[in-house]
Structure formats: structure tokens, C-alpha cells
Design a protein that fits this description.
Elements (H helix, E strand, L loop, with lengths): L15 E2 H9 L1 H8 L8 H13 L5 E4 L2 E11 L4 E18 L6 E10 L8 H17 L5 E6 L4 E6 L2 H20 L17 H4 L9 H10 L1
Parallel strand pairs: 1-4, 5-6
Antiparallel strand pairs: 2-3, 3-4, 4-5, 6-7
This protein binds iron/sulfur cluster.
Length: 225
């Protein structure tokens, strides 16, 4: 929840998309190519991810299942954090320590659920995205959300994720880094990583281009191989 020392409101034109933190945490250069240079490339993994999200964003926006209300494609934002975006799924679970919801009896606790293709990752990118979604929900609904869930399509499994103070602090730090790059309009340089192999942007990014070699030299070398 918001604390008084954080009271600062961003203008809407300065808002970041929640998804930016996921791309940036995976690879700052990938973030720069997408959000500063407006480049995009699909591969089989991004297409699978889109299909999974379309399922999560089923047109049935709200449904009640027993003690649970399930809301899909819920728009969220936070003027305090300067971000906006969409939660795949937000569940409201009957719990007398929770909040009231108009038109429903009782009280409910809030559980954001983010859908991802593949498996749990080594990095924190999915956890940071989920944490940021929860922080927006906390501001909007004036509640505390101690836990969220990540659903991974490849293993058909939902993992509970504690939304810790540490991850919230890191999320704010990463948002600040993103703003600094955005203000400078600077796309971070290549820093090769394991994720390059499956990155949909690799043909635009050219991660194998040595720093001492020009793009022209690189292409000539690759064509002659
Ligand atoms: S290919 Fe590697 S360095 Fe380039 S954007 Fe993708 S992950 Fe980042």
C-alpha cells in the first residue's frame, strides 16, 4: 500500500506500461528496441504467449465460482508509481479480513494471477511484473496483497509468489532505471545472455555482432560462412 513518504503523482503522459518491467528485467536492450525504437519480431515463443494470453483474456470478463469472483483483463494504473496496464486475471476470494466489492455480499481478498507460456524462469522478470500489478491493485483498492500467482502454460501449473518488501523495492528501482533510459532516449547496448538464443528480437539486435566489427563486416562474414 502507499505510504506517505511516497506521495508523488506522475502525469499520464509519463506513465510506463506494466509490461515494460518484464521486458527490461529480461534484457534492457530488448526493452529499448521495443519501447524506444518501436521494433517487434515474433517467434514461436511469442506467438504461444499471445495465444495463452488470449485464453486468459476470455471475453467473459467476470464470473463467480463459489467463494471466488474471477475478473479477466482488468485495467489497472497507479499515479504514484506512474504505470498502467492490464492484469490477466484478478481473483477476489471470500475472506472477512478483505475488502467490500459493490453488488457482492461479504468481504474479499485480492489475488492477481499472471499467465505465462513456458516454465518458471531463472530471472525475476515475471515476479516483478506480478509485483507491479499487485502494487497498482493495492493503490486502487486500498488494500494489502501479500501474494500473487504465476501460471505457466508449459507445465500447466500455478505457482504462489510472495510479494515481498524486497521485490517491491527492486521494482521501484527498476522503474527508475527505465525512466532514466527513456528520458535519454537511449537503447542499452548488447549484453549477451542465455536468453539471446530464444529471443524474438535477435535478428534485429544482432547480439553476435562483436563490438570491434561493423554491421557491414558482420553481414559479410556471416554470408561467407
Ligand atoms: S538478442 Fe539478447 S541482447 Fe539482444 S535483445 Fe535479445 S536478449 Fe537482449
Amino acid at each position: 500500500m502507499c505510504t506517505c513518504d511516497e506521495f508523488h503523482e506522475y502525469k499520464e503522459e509519463d506513465y510506463l506500461q506494466i509490461a515494460e518491467i518484464q521486458h527490461y528485467q529480461f534484457c534492457p536492450r530488448q526493452w529499448g528496441l521495443i519501447y524506444l525504437e518501436y521494433q517487434w519480431a515474433e517467434n514461436v515463443l511469442t506467438v504461444e504467449g499471445t495465444i495463452l494470453h488470449q485464453k486468459a483474456h476470455d471475453p467473459q470478463i467476470k464470473e463467480k465460482r463459489g467463494k471466488r469472483i474471477v475478473v479477466r483483463s482488468m485495467r489497472v494504473s497507479s499515479p504514484r508509481l506512474g504505470v498502467t496496464g492490464m492484469c490477466d486475471v484478478v481473483e477476489f476470494i471470500r475472506d472477512e479480513t478483505g475488502i467490500s466489492i459493490p453488488k457482492y455480499q461479504g468481504k474479499y481478498r485480492v489475488l492477481p494471477v499472471e499467465y505465462k507460456r513456458g516454465r518458471p524462469k531463472e530471472g525475476n522478470e515475471d515476479i516483478f511484473q506480478l509485483t507491479l500489478e499487485a502494487m497498482c491493485l493495492e493503490d486502487m483498492l486500498v488494500t494489502s496483497i501479500p501474494e500473487g500467482c504465476l501460471y505457466y502454460g508449459e507445465i500447466h501449473h500455478r505457482t504462489a509468489v510472495p510479494l515481498t518488501r524486497e521485490s517491491r523495492t527492486q521494482v521501484k528501482k527498476v522503474l527508475q532505471e527505465i525512466r532514466e533510459f527513456r528520458n535519454r532516449k537511449y537503447t542499452p547496448r548488447v549484453k549477451r545472455r542465455r536468453g539471446c538464443k530464444n529471443c524474438s528480437m535477435k535478428n534485429l539486435c544482432l547480439p553476435e555482432l562483436p563490438r570491434t566489427e561493423s554491421a557491414r563486416e558482420y553481414l559479410a562474414r556471416r554470408l561467407s560462412e
